[in-house]
Design goal:
Elements: E1 4-5, E2 14-18, E3 23-28, E4 38-43, E5 49-55, E6 68-75, E7 79-84, E8 89-94, E9 99-106, E10 112-120, E11 134-140, E12 143-148, E13 153-157, E14 165-167, E15 175-182, E16 185-190, E17 194-199, E18 209-212, E19 220-225, E20 232-237, E21 241-246, E22 251-255, E23 261-266, E24 273-278, E25 283-287, H1 308-311, E26 315-318, E27 327-333, E28 336-341, E29 345-350
Organism: Dendroctonus ponderosae
Subcellular location: Nucleus
Protein name: Nucleoporin Nup43
Length: 354
């Protein structure tokens, strides 16, 4: 299916930094006119959880440049998601059942720090009143949605301190993932592998459509959409497979990692490149930049939706040696991939080939 080439070609551009905390989420801070150099991390399974702002200033004359912590804020519970809404603001979700809006602000001296702007406290909870972990968060412009182990879906906006709407019994089991398909439509997935499409304009608390990821009850662990063709969904699951899901047609499974897939990210500027990581410590770069046409069809075919003989043309590169601990999160900006791991370290791959 794939060629595992180039596993050592980027070793001289691989920076590893031990930070004494397990990282569950890591995200580049987008910049308006320059390349990203700030990023944030959210911790998990530590005695005290926190969100940390880091800086990585690249120096072409010195390869021994490593990220350093700029600011941090304590956090209530494990960080289950981090998402930048724009270059200044990001949202986070917590295993304590809360969500937050935070800002990367600057003092008069120019030093960066993190401000907590809004807290949506205890928006996920079980029927007995105990807090339920918020498992995932997504946004579209200033609209946000959270899902949790309580089977609840919450809708709110970045400008309001109140939850606009809750669907209390959206699912009978834990909802694992959520993404916006468009401004008035979201997609959720649960522990049983059910994928549900919700129309946010509808007054009904029932999904508009329900589909299965596969014939087996395999749990999706991460969802993302193609940047330019949002009807194409890529799902990673607990068995290590990537499944391409065309909302207009059917699913196309691709066997991939040995362990459960923890995150999948398309390159934000070049959707012919996809990046994935797993619980077995793998960090892969999928290159599908070669386009193919099928038969006499004049329209180009998206490689992710092509037959197996075309999919076999994809190349998969190992960006770093396989770790003995899970890679929990990754993010990509320009030619830099960063990941956070269960071995209390973060890694930066600089100079990926696009």
């Amino acid at each position: 299916m794939y060629s595992e080439a180039g596993s050592t070609t980027m070793s001289h551009n691989l920076h590893g930094t031990f930070i004494s905390q397990k990282v569950n989420k890591i995200r580049w801070k987008p910049e308006r006119l320059e390349e990203s150099h700030f990023f944030v991390t959210g911790s998990v399974d530590n005695e005290d959880q926190k969100i940390v702002l880091w800086d990585f200033i690249d120096n072409k004359d010195d390869d021994d440049i490593y990220p350093f912590a700029v600011a941090e804020v304590p956090y209530c519970g494990d960080v289950s998601e981090l998402k930048f809404l724009n270059p200044d603001y990001f949202a986070s979700s917590s295993s304590s059942g809360s969500a937050h809006l935070m800002k990367v602000a600057y003092a008069e001296t120019g030093e960066a720090h993190i401000e907590v702007c809004t807290t949506w406290k205890d928006i996920h909870y079980f029927e007995n009143g105990e807090s339920s972990p918020c498992t995932a968060l997504a946004f579209h412009e200033n609209d946000l949605v959270t899902v949790g182990e309580d089977g609840r879906i919450n809708f709110f906006t970045a400008q309001s301190k109140d939850v606009a709407r809750s669907i209390d019994n959206a699912d009978s089991c834990s909802i694992q993932c959520v993404i916006f398909l468009k401004h008035d439509e979201i997609l959720t997935s649960n522990l049983r592998g059910q994928m549900k499409i919700w129309d946010t304009r509808s007054e009904s608390n029932k999904p508009a459509n329900t589909l299965m990821l596969s014939g087996d009850q395999v749990t999706p662990t991460y969802l993302t959409f193609h940047p330019t063709q949002r009807h194409i969904i890529i799902a990673g699951d607990e068995l290590g497979a990537l499944t391409t899901w065309d909302l207009r047609q059917q699913t196309f499974p691709v066997n991939a990692h040995e362990g459960a897939i923890t995150e999948i990210q398309f390159h934000p500027d070049n959707p012919d490149h996809l990046f994935s990581c797993s619980t077995t410590g793998e960090l892969w770069h999928w290159s599908t930049k070669t386009r193919y046409t099928l038969g006499f069809a004049s329209e180009e075919t998206n490689v992710w939706l092509a037959p197996e003989n075309v999919k076999s043309k994809m190349e998969v590169l190992t960006l770093m040696p396989t770790l003995g601990k899970p890679i929990n999160s990754l993010d990509v900006s320009k030619k830099k991939v960063i990941c956070g791991c269960g071995n209390e370290a973060i890694y930066l791959v600089n100079g990926i080939a696009l």
